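Human:
I keep going back and forth on a fold encoding question. Comparing notes only helps if you start from a blank page. Show me how you would write down a chain together with its backbone fold. Write it directly below this note and I will take it from there.

Assistant:
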Amino acid sequence: MNVLFWLIVKHVAPEWYGSPCYYAGQIICTLIAAVITWRDPPDWLDGILLGVIEFGVLIAGIIFFVWGIGYKLAFWGQHDPNTIYASANDVILPNLALGTGVLIAGWVYIRYLKR
Protein backbone atom coordinates (compact mmCIF):
# COMPACT_ATOMS: atom_id res chain seq x y z
CA MET A 1 0.00 0.00 0.00
CA ASN A 2 2.84 2.36 0.73
CA VAL A 3 4.29 1.84 -2.74
CA LEU A 4 0.91 2.59 -4.30
CA PHE A 5 0.62 5.75 -2.18
CA TRP A 6 4.17 6.75 -3.14
CA LEU A 7 3.42 6.27 -6.86
CA ILE A 8 0.24 8.33 -6.62
CA VAL A 9 2.07 11.15 -4.84
CA LYS A 10 5.01 10.99 -7.23
CA HIS A 11 2.89 11.32 -10.35
CA VAL A 12 -0.17 13.27 -9.20
CA ALA A 13 1.02 15.53 -6.39
CA PRO A 14 4.84 15.73 -6.32
CA GLU A 15 4.70 18.83 -4.12
CA TRP A 16 3.40 16.59 -1.29
CA TYR A 17 6.61 14.56 -1.11
CA GLY A 18 8.34 15.24 2.20
CA SER A 19 5.42 17.19 3.66
CA PRO A 20 3.60 16.27 6.88
CA CYS A 21 0.59 15.15 4.80
CA TYR A 22 2.79 12.71 2.89
CA TYR A 23 4.12 11.15 6.08
CA ALA A 24 0.63 11.02 7.60
CA GLY A 25 -0.56 9.18 4.48
CA GLN A 26 2.33 6.72 4.74
CA ILE A 27 1.48 6.06 8.41
CA ILE A 28 -2.20 5.54 7.59
CA CYS A 29 -1.32 3.09 4.79
CA THR A 30 0.99 1.21 7.16
CA LEU A 31 -1.69 0.96 9.84
CA ILE A 32 -4.30 -0.25 7.35
CA ALA A 33 -1.90 -2.90 6.03
CA ALA A 34 -1.05 -3.98 9.59
CA VAL A 35 -4.71 -4.36 10.51
CA ILE A 36 -5.53 -6.28 7.34
CA THR A 37 -2.67 -8.74 7.83
CA TRP A 38 -3.10 -9.08 11.59
CA ARG A 39 -4.12 -12.62 12.61
CA ASP A 40 -6.86 -11.90 15.11
CA PRO A 41 -9.09 -15.01 15.36
CA PRO A 42 -12.56 -13.42 15.50
CA ASP A 43 -11.67 -10.68 12.98
CA TRP A 44 -13.01 -8.02 15.32
CA LEU A 45 -10.28 -5.52 14.41
CA ASP A 46 -11.05 -5.85 10.70
CA GLY A 47 -14.71 -5.22 11.44
CA ILE A 48 -13.85 -2.07 13.38
CA LEU A 49 -11.65 -0.79 10.55
CA LEU A 50 -14.29 -1.48 7.90
CA GLY A 51 -16.94 0.22 10.04
CA VAL A 52 -14.77 3.30 10.49
CA ILE A 53 -14.07 3.45 6.75
CA GLU A 54 -17.74 2.96 5.84
CA PHE A 55 -19.10 5.57 8.22
CA GLY A 56 -16.16 7.90 7.60
CA VAL A 57 -16.98 7.96 3.89
CA LEU A 58 -20.65 8.49 4.73
CA ILE A 59 -19.88 11.42 7.05
CA ALA A 60 -17.44 12.95 4.54
CA GLY A 61 -20.09 12.74 1.83
CA ILE A 62 -22.66 14.42 4.06
CA ILE A 63 -20.22 17.22 4.88
CA PHE A 64 -19.49 17.64 1.15
CA PHE A 65 -23.25 17.83 0.50
CA VAL A 66 -23.73 20.49 3.19
CA TRP A 67 -20.84 22.48 1.70
CA GLY A 68 -22.46 22.28 -1.74
CA ILE A 69 -25.78 23.58 -0.42
CA GLY A 70 -24.04 26.41 1.42
CA TYR A 71 -22.02 27.30 -1.67
CA LYS A 72 -25.12 27.31 -3.89
CA LEU A 73 -26.99 29.51 -1.40
CA ALA A 74 -23.97 31.88 -1.21
CA PHE A 75 -23.27 31.29 2.48
CA TRP A 76 -19.57 30.96 1.68
CA GLY A 77 -17.26 31.10 -1.32
CA GLN A 78 -16.12 33.82 -3.67
CA HIS A 79 -19.23 35.74 -4.63
CA ASP A 80 -18.19 39.06 -6.12
CA PRO A 81 -21.08 40.60 -8.08
CA ASN A 82 -18.63 42.55 -10.25
CA THR A 83 -16.96 39.41 -11.57
CA ILE A 84 -17.81 38.62 -15.19
CA TYR A 85 -16.30 35.13 -15.28
CA ALA A 86 -16.85 31.93 -13.34
CA SER A 87 -14.34 29.19 -12.74
CA ALA A 88 -15.15 25.54 -13.24
CA ASN A 89 -15.11 25.07 -9.47
CA ASP A 90 -17.99 27.52 -9.09
CA VAL A 91 -20.15 25.32 -11.30
CA ILE A 92 -18.92 21.73 -11.10
CA LEU A 93 -18.03 21.22 -7.43
CA PRO A 94 -21.31 22.42 -5.88
CA ASN A 95 -23.28 20.33 -8.38
CA LEU A 96 -21.06 17.34 -7.62
CA ALA A 97 -21.66 17.90 -3.90
CA LEU A 98 -25.42 17.97 -4.42
CA GLY A 99 -25.27 14.80 -6.52
CA THR A 100 -23.18 13.12 -3.82
CA GLY A 101 -25.83 13.99 -1.26
CA VAL A 102 -28.57 12.49 -3.39
CA LEU A 103 -26.55 9.29 -3.85
CA ILE A 104 -25.88 9.05 -0.11
CA ALA A 105 -29.57 9.57 0.67
CA GLY A 106 -30.47 6.80 -1.79
CA TRP A 107 -27.85 4.49 -0.32
CA VAL A 108 -29.10 5.11 3.24
CA TYR A 109 -32.69 4.49 2.12
CA ILE A 110 -31.84 1.23 0.36
CA ARG A 111 -29.46 -0.05 3.03
CA TYR A 112 -31.16 0.93 6.27
CA LEU A 113 -34.68 2.26 5.83
CA LYS A 114 -36.09 -0.23 3.31
CA ARG A 115 -35.56 -3.27 5.56
User: Anything to note?
Assistant: The chain is about 75% helix and 0% strand.
